[in-house]
């Protein structure tokens, strides 16, 4: 790849931040898809043997490319804890938390819905449960990384403030909508 002509600035940091988030999200999504297809085959086994390998080449390609894109662009953000690194980690934590909330809602609707009592398959519950565990894992990994940092430095960082402000606004909107 061609190096940037000048020192890291806002355009470069925005690009590396975005591609690092997309690359890691693609890799995690691919691993979850492989795990879900394997578990669905193991527990439901309604398809012929070997049919769960049909999507494997695409899933492995996305996994490898996602890891390579993430590895390259995350390395460009630098090893020290700067604001772009904080923004990346808080964005991944927010993505994991938002996914976990949505998946928990969908899982409770699928688990306690009327369709399951009438004889629907358990494919949705297995899929949602595995995806929920992955989303909570992503949130926990990145939130705990931020929690291990020195409090006096981390508390005044703008990415943390944006994360917590966004979390508060979304919580307030959900609470107002529930009224």
Topology overview:
Elements lengths: L9 H34 L12 H22 L5 H29 L2 H5 L4 H25 L3 H4 L3 H21 L1
Helix pairs in contact: 1-2, 1-3, 1-5, 3-5, 3-7
How is this structure best described in words?
The chain is mostly helical. The protein is built from 7 helices and no strands. It has helices at residues 10-43, 56-77, 83-111, 114-118, 123-147, 151-154, 158-178. Helix 1 runs antiparallel to helix 5 (123-147) and helix 3 packs antiparallel against helix 5 (123-147). The N and C termini lie far apart (53 Å). The model has no long low-confidence stretch (mean pLDDT 81).
Provide a compact summary of the structure.
With 179 residues, the chain is mostly helical. Helices cover 78% and strands 0% of the residues.
């Amino acid at each position: 790849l061609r190096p940037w002509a000048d020192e890291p600035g806002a355009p470069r940091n925005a690009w590396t931040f975005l591609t690092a988030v997309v690359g890691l999200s693609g890799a995690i999504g691919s691993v979850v898809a492989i795990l879900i297809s394997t578990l669905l085959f193991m527990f439901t086994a309604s398809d012929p043997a070997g049919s769960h390998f049909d999507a494997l080449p695409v899933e492995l390609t996305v996994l490898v490319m996602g890891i390579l894109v993430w590895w390259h662009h995350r390395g460009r953000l630098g090893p020290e804890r700067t604001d772009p690194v904080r923004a990346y980690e808080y964005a991944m934590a927010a993505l994991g938390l938002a996914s976990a909330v949505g998946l928990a809602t969908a899982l409770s609707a699928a688990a306690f819905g009327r369709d399951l009592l009438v004889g629907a398959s358990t494919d949705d519950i297995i899929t949602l449960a595995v995806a929920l565990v992955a989303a909570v894992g992503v949130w926990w990994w990145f939130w705990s990384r931020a929690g291990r940092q020195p409090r006096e430095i981390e508390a005044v960082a703008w990415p943390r403030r944006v994360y917590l402000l966004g979390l508060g606004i979304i919580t307030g909107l959900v609470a107002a909508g529930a009224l």
